[in-house]
Amino acid sequence: MKACFLKKLDESLLTNLPPFRSLTEQQIREILDSAQTARYDAGKPVFAEGRAVDRFFLLLDGHVRVQRTTSEGDQIILLHIAPGQLFGIGAALGHKTYPATAVAADDCVVLAWPNRLWPDFIARYDGFATQTYATVGARLNDMHAVIVEMATKQVEQRIASALLRLIAQMGRKVEHGIEIDFPITRQNISDMTGSTLHTVSRLLSAWEKDGIVASERKKITVTAPHRLVLLSGAAG
User: Fold this and answer.
1) Which residue ranges in the chain fall short of pLDDT 50?
2) Residue pLDDT, tens place only, 29-69
3) d(Cα 236, Cα 234) in Å, to the nearest integer?
4) What pLDDT sits at residue 188?
5) For residues 185 and 196, what is the distance between their CA atoms, to the nearest angstrom?
6) pLDDT given at position 13
7) Nearest-angstrom CA–CA distance, 67 and 65
8) Which residues contact residue 224 at a Cβ distance below 8 angstroms, ignoring those fewer than 6 apart?
9) Half-sphere exposure of 203 (CA within 13 A, CB side)
């Protein structure tokens, strides 16, 4: 972590972010004045699975990958966090330790607050609490969908579904399609879908030949989303 103290972050920059939409600028100023700003280089952990929940975070810039380690030592990627979202909010679920590890997928800037402020924020800022629990609910739904996919879908469908989720949540329109707007490797996709690196590489290579995706080092663009929907089984 690199502390990067900003002179004073303008509260108007945060008014459209989900945790702050229902708050006044004065309330946002109060919340910001109690935050520390930090920068994390790509690949560095923001917090680690099993460590005491001591802080919660808002992602200002970059993307964060949330992952867990199985008893066999394998990595499973649970979800990705986009800019403007809270994360590390274990206190909202009553957790004493972080249930997963958060890693910077690219260079990130975050706001961090001591966990002792969580009850105060929830009590004093109704909009903050409402948006936070809406975020928790949405993430639980996403993880439930992934669990169902792992249990019921074939590997090709799981990989197609994972790519569709990424472009829906963090896609960026480019000339030839929708690009996943942060670095992602074939190993990452393997960790998201419970498949092997060989299988992911084989399928992405085949889809690239068929004009469904385009890939280069740590970049994937979906060039035919409608065809990927068919491959995911969602159209059926």
Assistant:
1) 5-6
2) 999 999 999 999 999 999 999 999 999 999 999 999 999 88
3) 5
4) 94
5) 13
6) 78
7) 6
8) 177, 211, 212, 213
9) 22
Sign of CA dihedral 80, 86, 92, 97: positive
Residue 236: what pLDDT?
53
Tokens matching residue 118: 């969580």
> Please, what is the Cα angle at 67 between 63 and 69, to 5 degrees?
160
Tokens encoding 64: 């964060």
How would DSSP label each residue in the chain?
A: -EE---S---GGGGTTSGGGTTS-HHHHHHHHHT-EEEEE-TT-EEE-TTSB--EEEEEEES-EEEEEE-TTS-EEEEEEE-TT-EE--GGGGT-SB-SSEEEESS-EEEEEEEGGGHHHHHHH-HHHHHHHHHHHHHHHHHHHHHHHHHHHS-HHHHHHHHHHHHHHHHEEEETTEEEESS---HHHHHHHHT--HHHHHHHHHHHHHTTSEEEETTEEEES-HHHHHHHHTTT-
Q: Would you give the distance in Å from CA 119 to the centre of its chain?
A: 24
Phi, psi (5° rounding) for residue 219?
Answer: -135, 135
* Angle, vertex CA 158, rays to CA 156 and CA 161, nearest 5: 110
pTM for the predicted model, two decimal places: 0.85
Instruction: Give the integer Cα–Cα distance in Å for 133 and 83.
Output: 17
Q: What is the pLDDT of residue 116?
A: 92
Q: Could you tell me which residues are beta bridge partners of residue 111?
A: 37, 58
Question: Which residue in 90, 98, 171, 179 sits closest to 136, CA to CA?
Answer: 90
Domain annotation for the chain: domains and CATH numbers: 2-146 (2.60.120.10), 153-232 (2.60.120.10)
